[in-house]
Amino acid sequence: MFSKMSITRSTGSCSDNIKRLREALDAADAVVVGAGAGLSTSAGLTYTGDRFEQYFSDFAANL
Asked: What is this structure's pTM?
C-alpha cells in the first residue's frame, strides 16, 4: 500500500522535536500511556483459544 500524498516537509526539525520531548519527559512526574486492543494484537496476543478461555472464561460466559 502506498500513499498518494506527496511528502514535502523536511525531517530536519525532528531532532528539535525529540529534544523537546526528552526535556518534557525529564521534567515530568509521571507519564500516562493510553493503549487499546491493537497494541496487544500487534504483540501477537489473540482473543480466542486456550489462553483466552483460561483467563477470561468468566467474561465470555456473560456475553
From this structure: 0.40
